[in-house]
Amino acid sequence: MKASRFIALQDARSVGQQAALLIARQIKDKPDASIVFPTGKTPLPLYAVLRQMSGLGWSKTRLFQLDEYVKPTGLQEPLPYETFATFLNRELWHHIGGNKYYIQDYLACPDAYEKQLSENGGPDLVILGIGGNGHIAFNEPGSSPDSITRVVSLAPKTLNANFGDSNKAGYPTEAITMGLATILASKQIILLATGVNKQDIVAQAFAPDTEPSVHCPASWLKRHPCLTVMTDFEFPLSK
Ligand code: GLP
From CA 80, how far away is CA 95, in angstroms rounded? Predict the structure, then answer.
C-alpha cells in the first residue's frame, strides 16, 4: 500500500516536472491505465512537460475529463467561454494518443461515465487542482463524500473565479463533474496546488488535527491511501 505524500517544490514548473514523472510511471506500469485530467491554470506546466515527453506510450491509455461546464440552453456557437474539452484538447489531448472520454458526452447518462471509469480496474490515477473554496473538480462545499458523476450548480465564488462577473448573461451556472466518491475510488490521486492564493485552502484542507468536512471538499482526500500533494509552497505537512 503506497503512503500519502506532501511534496513542496520551488516553483510551479518543478511541480509540473515532478508530476509528469509520476504520470509517466503510471503509464509504464499500466499502459492501458484510466487517467483523469483537470483543467485550469495549475496543470498548464504539467501539460507542457507531457507534450514534450516523447516516447510515452499513450496509445492504450484511457483519458477522462474531470469536469465540464453545462452549456446554457439555447446558447448558440460560438460560445462566450471556452469549454474544458477545448482546453484539454489544446493543452494535451490533441498532442497525445489514447482513448478519450469527454464527460459532456455523458450528460444524459452520468452513470455510464462511472461505468467507463470503473472498467479495466480503473480509475487508476486522478489528477486534481483545488478551487479557492476547497472544491475539487466541481464538487463545491456541501458536496457529499458519497457523490458520484452528476450535474451540479456552481457556487458564486467559483463563477467569479472562472468567469469574472458571474452575472454575465449566457455563461454557465451548472457543470457536470466526477463526484467525491468517484475521485476517492481512484487507486492513486495527485493534487497540484501552486501560487500563494492556494496556501490557505491547502493548509485548511489538510490540517492534521481536523476531520474531513463537507465544508471543504478537498479535506476528504486526507482519507485516501495513495495521495500525493505537490505544491510550490511550504505548508505544515510538507517534508
Ligand atoms: C475549476 C475546476 C477545478 C480546478 C479549479 C482550480 O473550478 N473545476 O478542476 O482545479 O478551478 O483552477 P486553477 O488551477 O486555475 O486555480
Answer: 25
